[in-house]
Every structure is written in structure tokens, then in C-alpha cells.
Amino acid sequence: MDAILDTIKNHREIKLVLILIAVVVALKLVYELLKIAKILNVQDKSFFDALYSMLFRRYYLVSQARKTAKEGNFLKAGKIYEEIGDFRKALKTYEDGQLFTEMGELNERLNRETQAIEIYKRIGHLDGIIRLYLKRRNIEAACSLLESNNRFQEAAEIYYNYERFEKAAQIYERKGFFKKAAYIYEKDGNLKRAAINFEKWFLSNADTSGGFHKDSRLEQDLMKAVELYTRVGENERAFNLLVQQDKFDKAAELAQKMERIEEAAKLYEKAQMPIRAADLYEKLGQHRVAYQLRGEDSFARGNTREAAEWYLKGEDYTRAAELFEWDRSFEKAAYCYFMNQNFAAAAENYLKAEKEEEAAKMFEMAHQWKPAADIYLKYKRFQKAGELFEKAGEYFKAGGSFLKVDDEKRALANFQQVHPNSPDYLASITQMATIFLKHRKHQLVIEKLGKLLADQTISPKNIDWYYLLGQAEENAGDFKKAHSIYQMVLSENYSYKDVHQRLKDVENLIQKYKEMALVQEDSSQRYRIIRKVGEGGMGTVYKAEDTVLQRIVALKVLNASLIKDKRSLERFYTEARSTASLSHSNIVTVYDVGQLGDDHFISMEFIEGENFMSLIRNNRQFSIPQVLYITIKVLKALDYSHRKGIIHRDIKPHNIMITRQKEIKIMDFGLAVIRGDMKKGESGIITGTPYYMSPEQIQGQPTDHRTDIYSVGATVFHLITGRVPFKGENVFYQHLFEGVPSMRQLRPDTPDRLEEVVEKCMAKKREERYQSAQEVLNIIKTLHTQ
Questions:
Q1: Could you tell me the sign of the dihedral formed by the alpha carbons of 624, 630, 632, 638, in that order?
Q2: Angle 382-391/408-415 helices, nearest 10 degrees?
Q3: Using CA atoms, how far apart are residues 464 and 444, in angstroms rounded to an integer?
Q4: Residues 411, 416, 421, 427, Cα dihedral to 10°
């Protein structure tokens, strides 16, 4: 030892080294002392305790860690082990205390990333795993983990931050963030996907309930999608998108670029840009359409006359006619109406233009017979006037016109159809009597004038008819009646025509044929039966020939049981004569009524055809358009008869016929009142099964035109569904109190509106039904055109 000290003293360099080592150790000691003081909070300890702690630092800290761990504070124990750098024991302590998060974080600080990841996975510490994946730049693994845990937006942001744009855009697209996806796709250069996502963003935010969304920013997104589609050559997708969103002007421009000229023109039309559309149509050679569009432009600018001329050139005769008429260019308007087959309007405009003969032709083509006939009569074209007056139901004027051209047969046929309530009825009787006498139809004169004069005494007003009646009786061989009538004429006007000579002639004949019986024709001589057509509760129907008027008729001979008393007989004749005044293409015409022996008959138009009840019984199902067509014809006929004050009272499939020419005809007008008498017992209660009868008929209340409307509803129900509305033993009760069954349940293709119409027609209270046949007709017409 002494030798060593001597050596140090003798060597100055060794001495310096030793001094330096001592300084370093001293500094180290101070540093460690300060650390331990900080850890152990030396300021709270006595100096000696602190000194002791510093001198025995590691031993002390280890003992403190063990003690703390035993107390169960594994976190604090682990932290102490970390301070003294014993990381193995720190990890073990954390594991013993199941402090896996701290265990993972310590491994992470020690750069033991694999171990840290395994620990984080075991405890599900997602953020730690992600952090380490990113630290290793394992972007795919980090984002995949985020996606599997539904943290899509974070995954997308990571992809975006690491410039993995396609991946980021794909995630945004999948999750419906189309606008973000679109911008990223565009930044990545994938313009097609960008366009698709702009489109998706627009469609997902557009207002689909009312057309194009008004948000200008959203419109910009739409146009961005269109721009990108066109940039990548997807013009068709861009075009379709514009059309779907009613951007017709832009779509038209694109269609032009694609050289789809006709499509572009149509789109300019939709965009209300008529001039640009017209220019394109002219390039296509479609001049008519171009002219019409130029007409629209002129009209929009308020130039009515110019617009009309363009429409005329474009063959849009309807609008041209309306505008010419507005401009008071009546002749041009008439021409346009004619070209559009609106003959009635053409006629009116020709009249305004003082072109009467042209107007007459138009009225005729419009089937407006009377105004046409009036014009022809004015210009003395009697044959034509007669034909048209006849079609118009102006029978007296028709007869007079035919007499002007000596067509007595046709004149007579028209005079016979003049209604008794007509102011021309008496004059028509005079004309008929004159013709009948000329052609020796004496009995017809006697019947007509006899009824006319039955309650009239002779006077200057009716002396002509008495004179004609006298002639008829004389020619018919009833000289005594003729003598009596001539005496009345003579007493009224002593110098009347040749009455003196005629009176003298019949006196001579009476003397000569004292024993001669009365000779006159009866109805049985007028009709020649050809064959029986059918038989039913009302009577028997024959096909017969009217030998007087030389035409085929249907002769319905009523059962005697229908005419129970004088009141029923009078009512029958009153109704039948009223019905005979009806002249309509959809009504079977009644010609005459009379008596054959003890039976009463009706002579009517003979129809070759079948009634709809027969078709229903043969399982015929009608299409909805067919039923609407039938209903329109029935309502037209009823509207006509109601305006004449005549109610049918028994509308049903049995009384509606279809001819071989597919015309619809209503028959048995006027017979319902007799059938009604038959169906009432002495108590006034209606018997039978009235499937189509209105509540007021069932209750024996007065009927009106709304009764027919109820029956029309029931008939349409039967034609549509194949069954009557109410059936069973309590049909009366159902008509009075139960609602109409659902037609759609019985026939699903029944239009809702048609079902509503039938239900309103069959309302229990008349005031709740449609109030006229015309009102129902207007609605059915709209359904038929749909």
C-alpha cells in the first residue's frame, strides 16, 4: 500500500487522473442525490434520512417497489421500477397487476413494437394499435382495423393524409359521403368516378317531390357531374342526367354537340325556346312543326295575326282558326275550322263572313240540320231544305218543303210526325187531310179531323177542317155524316166554296143508297202481319207492314190485362202519343197507336238486334270502354227525352238494344207507366222484383227525370259486374236503406271515378243524385276518352 502511495506521489499524471475521477464521482453522487431527493421528497425528511436514502438509493427503491406491490398498488410499483431502469421487473409488476395498457405503453417506449401490438390486441386498445401501425407506416393495416370497427371516416382521413386518395374516396363513396368522394376522385384524376359521385350527391339531395331543386349550390354539383361526364366521353350519361332533371336547354345543347338534331329540337320545345327548336326542325325538313313553333313565338309576343298565319302554314288548324276568329278574319277562320273538321264553327264563321251557302254546307256536315235547312229554304232549294228539316225534326217545315217539289209521299210522312203540342199541329192536319183526300185515304182524314173537331163547334177558324171532313165522309161512303157536316158549313158560311153542290150530291146519294151500311177502313186493314217476333208480359210483338205508309214496323199488341179501365186506357194513349214525338238516333221511334179488335197496339220502328239482358244471360262480359260507350248513348237519349218532358221510368238491360249495325237503342218509352199500373195492387204496394227501380218508385211516390238516372246507375252496375246491385228476398229494403256494393270488389279493373259516378246516380235521395242526364254524360265522356 505504501508502495502504491509513493508511486502516486512521484507521478504527477496519475495524481491528476485520480483527482479527475474523484470530481466525476462527486458530481455523479450529487446528481443521484438530487434525483433521489426529488423522488423521495427529501425536503420532508431529516438530513440523515435523506443521506441514507441517497447512499442506499437502489436498495431503497427496490424495497419500496416491493412494499407498494404487496399493498396492491402495482401501478406505483411499476413506475418505481421504471425509474430505476429495471424495465423487466416493471413489465412483470404491470402484468401481475393486469395493467396491460401500461405494459403496452412501456413496450412501446422501449421500441418493442411487436410486443406492444400483441398486448394492445389482447386488451382491445384500438388507438394504440393504430398508432403503432402508422408509426411503422402500415397504412393498410391501420385503416382496415378502423373500418372493421366502423370508424370509416378516420380511415378515410388517414388514407387521404397519406395520399392514398382512391382508398379514401372509395370509403366516402361506400358510406354515402358522395360529395367528399367526388372531390377526392377528381383530385386523384379519376374523373368518371368523380362524376358518378357528384351525380349521386345531387340525386340524394334533390327534391323529388316537385321537380328540380332550387338550391343553386346543388345545381352547381349537377352541372359539375355533367362537365366531368363530358370530359371523359360519357356524353350519354350527361345527357340523360340533364333530361331527368328537366334541364332541357342544357340537354338540347349537348344533343346538338352529339349531332342528335331532332332530339335537340324537341328539348328546345320543352325548354320553351321555340325559335331555336324551329331552326333545328327546318334543318331536318320538318317545316310544319317549325311553322307551328314560330306561331307560338308570335303569339307569345302578342302578334295574333302573324301567329295565326304561322299556325295555318304549319297545319295547326285549331289554333289558327281560333286566332283568325279573334282577329275577325272570319273567312280564314271558317276555312281552318273546316280543315279541322269542326264544321259547326266553320258554319258560324262563314255566316259572320256573309257566305251563307258555304255556311249551309258546313251546318249540314256538322249535322246541324235546321240552320242548314233555313239557308237552303231561303235560296229556294226546297228538296235539300226538306231533307234537312226532316233530319232536324222540323217535320212541318220539311213537309212544306217537299210539297214545293211535289213529293207528297215524303211530305205526308213528315206531317204525320208533327207533335200535337206543336203550334204547327193544326196546319199539318190540314195539309195531311188535303193530301189524303187527293189520294183517297178517306179514313185517315176522318180519324185525324174527327179527333181534332170532337170538342169544337164550327167557326170561321175551323170551317176548312169541317169542309175537308165532309169530303172525307162523302168519299168514304158515309153520306149521312157528310150531309150533316155540309149543312153545318152552309149554316156558318152560305157561300163557302162548292158546299151547295156537294150538299145536293150527297142528298142524291143518300136517296140512292138508303140501305147502304157504313163503310170505313179500320186498323186491321192497315197492318199486314209478317211473323211473330216475341212474346212477354207486356204482350206480343210482330213484324208487320204498314200498308198505308209502306214501311216495316214492329207491332206490339198489348195484353188486355194491362188496360184495366178507362183511366189506364187514356193514360196509355197520352203517354204513347207523347213518346211518338221523340225522334232520336238512340230511341226506338213510335209511329202510331191504335186498336185491333179488342186489343190495343203500338206501331214502332222495327229493329234487327238483341237486348243487353239477353247478352248478359249468354255470359257476355263487356269491357270498360264498351260499357262507357253504351252509357253515353243511353244518356244522350235520356237527356233528349227529359228535355222534351218525357221520362222512361223503366231503364234496364232488357230495354236497351244493340242493332246489327252496332247502334244503341232504348225501347218501350211510355210503356213503363202501364207496367207501373199493372204492378200496383189495390193497396198501392208495388209487387215484383224491381232490380233497377228507384226508391221513390218503390214507395209509390211521384217520379221525375232523376228516377231514370237511378236506373242508369243500376244498369251500368249490372253491365260492369255481371250482376244486379241488390238481389235476394229483400231487394226493396236494400234499394231503400243499403249502400251500393263495391264494384271494384266484384270487378277490380273498374275505374274509381266510374264507381263514384254509379254510387251518386243511385243515391237514395233524389237531390243527392246527379240532377240531369247531361251532367252524368259529361263525366262519362271524360272517362271514355282517358
A1: negative
A2: 30
A3: 17
A4: 50
CA quadruple 81, 87, 88, 94: dihedral sign: positive
Residue-level length of the chain: 786
What sign results for the dihedral spanned by CA atoms 613, 615, 621, 622? negative
CA distance 297 to 275: 7
The phi and psi torsions of 407 (rounded to 5 degrees) equal -95, 80
Q: Are 389 and 397 in contact (CB under 8 A)?
A: yes
Q: What is the pLDDT of residues 156-198, one digit of tens each?
A: 888 888 888 888 788 888 888 888 888 888 888 888 887 788 8
545 DSSP β-pair partners: 528, 552
Question: How far is Cα 706 from Cα 761, in angstroms, rounded to an integer?
Answer: 8
Q: Are 552 and 544 in contact (CB under 8 A)?
A: yes
Give strand pairing partners of 544: 529, 553
**3-state SS of 725-737?**
CCCCCCHHHHHHH
User: What type of residue sits at position 761?
Assistant: C
pTM of the model: 0.38
For the stretch 501-550, pLDDT in tens is: 888 888 887 765 543 222 224 455 678 889 988 876 667 888 999 887 78
| Closest to 648 in 3D by CA, of 697, 600, 698, 717 | 697
The Cα 674–Cα 560 span in angstroms is: 12
Count CB neighbours of 383 within 10 A: 14
C-alpha distances in Å from residue 378, one per residue of 360, 374, 381, 687: 11, 6, 8, 57
- Name the burial class of residue 515, with classes exposed (0-12), middle (13-18) and buried (19+) by CB atoms within 10 angstroms of its CB: exposed
* Overall average pLDDT of the 332-357 stretch: 88
Task: Report phi then psi at 196, rounded to 5.
Answer: -60, -40
> Residues 777, 639: contact at Cβ < 8 Å?
yes
Instruction: Enter the C-alpha cell of residue 161.
Output: 393524409
At 100 the three-state DSSP class reads helix
Q: How far apart are CA 112 and CA 345, in angstroms?
A: 101
pLDDT, one tens digit per residue, over 578-634 is 677 777 889 988 888 887 766 788 888 898 889 999 898 888 889 999 999 999 999
The domains located in the chain, with CATH, are 24-161 (1.25.40), 441-516 (1.25.40.10), 526-605 (3.30.200.20), 609-785 (1.10.510.10)
Rg for the chain, CA atoms, rounded: 55
Q: Which DSSP state fits 600?
A: E
pLDDT at 9: 58
The 10 Å Cβ neighbour count of residue 41 is 10
CB 431 within 8 A of CB 454: no
Helices (H), 284-394: 287-300, 304-313, 317-326, 330-339, 343-352, 356-365, 369-378, 382-391
Q: Which residues pair with 532 in a beta bridge?
A: 542
Other Cβ atoms closer than 10 A to 518: 11
Cα distances from 242 to residues 262, 269, 361, 568, in angstroms, run 17, 15, 52, 77
Q: 3-state SS of 284-311?
A: CCCHHHHHHHHHHHHHHCCCHHHHHHHH
pLDDT-based confidence at residue 695 (cuts at 50, 70, 90): very high
Q: How far apart are CA 290 and CA 745, in angstroms?
A: 50
Residue 717: strand pairing partners: none
Residue 420 buriedness (CB in 10 A; 0-12 / 13-18 / 19+): middle
Helix, coil or strand: residue 714 = helix
Give the separation between CA 285 and CA 274, rounded to whole angstroms.
16
CA-CA distance, 536 to 664, in Å (whole number)? 22
The arrangement of strands across the sheet holding 664-666 comes to: 609-611, 656-659, 664-666
Q: Which three cell numbers stand for residue 565?
A: 179501365
Distance of CA 454 to the CA centre of its chain: 60
Cα–Cα distance measured from residue 626 to residue 646, given in angstroms and rounded to the nearest whole number = 27
Tell me, what DSSP letter sits at residue 595? E
